[in-house]
Structures are given as structure tokens and as C-alpha cells.
């Protein structure tokens, strides 16, 4: 990750928010692109522990969360709080675009 420049990120954000009015609709547009393009499941690291990201969700507080599991334990973690693997999963550039948008 980190391979896209500012103009590329802003073009992705524009593509996903072109018909959006306000911050909530923009976030929904970015969430929709993550749903469409992020290759699930993938492994990530949370607090030094490897977890499986098996889905994403738009939380009531407006944040986009990764639905993570390890064994029988499941937890929702802010997608921007994940330490992504290298190489990152297909579609991870949309996480980068969301990070850029969230500023």
C-alpha cells in the first residue's frame, strides 16, 4: 500500500462519491467500492495478533469496520486500524482511498 499518489487517490474518491451529498453519502460511496473491490477473506494484524477479515460493515457511528475473527472469537475493528499484510489483498487501494478521504 502507499503506492498511489494524491491525484490517483482523489480520482478514486471522486469516482465513488460523484453523486453523494454530504459526508454520510460520501462514506457510503466509499463503503460500496470496498464491498465491490476488496478481496475477502484476508489476514491482517490487530495488536500483534493475526486475524481473518471476513467482511466489512458500515457501523451506526458512521465508521467502516472490518469484521475480524480468530478461532471462535469475532470482533468488529475500524478498517483504518488494521495492519494489512504484505502484499495487501486485491482492492486494498480502496482502504487507502478511504484513509485519504477520512484525512
The largest β sheet comes out as: 4 strands, antiparallel
- What is the chain-wise order of helices and strands? HHEEEEH
- Domain count: the total is 1
The low-confidence parts are none
Spatial sequence of strands, sheet with the most strands: 1-2-3-4
Task: Tell me the β content.
Answer: 25-35%
Look at the helices and sheets and give the structural class: alpha+beta
Query: What general outline do the C-alpha atoms trace?
Result: globular
Calculate the mean pLDDT score and round it. Answer: 93
Task: Please compute the radius of gyration using only Cα atoms.
Answer: 13 Å
Q: How far apart lie the N and C ends?
A: 16 Å
Helix content: 25-40%
So how many helices? 3
Count every beta strand, where a strand is a DSSP E run of 2 or more residues. 4
Protein name: Calcium-binding protein
Organism: Streptomyces althioticus subsp. attaecolombicae
Write the layout of secondary structure elements.
Blueprint: H1 6-17, H2 22-37, E1 42-46, E2 49-58, E3 64-70, E4 73-78, H3 93-102
Antiparallel strand pairs: 1-2, 2-3, 3-4
Helix pairs in contact: 1-3, 2-3
Overall description:
Strands 1-2-3-4 form a 4-stranded antiparallel β-sheet. α2 packs antiparallel against α3 (93-102). The chain is globular, with a radius of gyration of 13 Å. The chain has one domain (6-102). A hairpin with a 5-residue loop joins β2 (49-58) and β3 (64-70). It is an alpha+beta fold and 103 residues long. The protein has helices at residues 6-17, 22-37, 93-102; strands at 42-46, 49-58, 64-70, 73-78. Pfam families: Calci_bind_CcbP (PF11535). InterPro entries: Uncharacterised_Ca-bd_CcbP. This is Calcium-binding protein.
Amino acid at each position: 500500500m502507499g503506492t498511489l499518489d494524491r491525484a490517483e487517490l482523489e480520482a478514486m474518491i471522486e469516482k465513488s462519491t460523484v453523486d453523494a451529498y454530504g459526508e454520510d453519502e460520501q462514506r457510503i460511496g466509499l463503503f460500496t467500492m470496498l464491498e465491490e473491490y476488496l478481496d475477502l477473506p484476508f489476514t491482517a494484524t490487530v495488536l500483534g495478533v493475526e486475524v481473518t477479515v471476513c467482511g466489512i460493515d458500515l457501523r451506526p457511528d458512521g465508521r467502516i469496520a472490518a469484521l475480524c475473527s480468530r478461532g471462535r472469537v469475532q470482533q468488529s475493528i475500524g478498517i483504518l486500524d488494521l495492519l494489512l499484510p504484505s502484499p495487501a489483498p486485491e482492492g486494498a487501494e480502496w482502504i487507502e482511498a478511504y484513509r485519504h478521504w477520512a484525512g
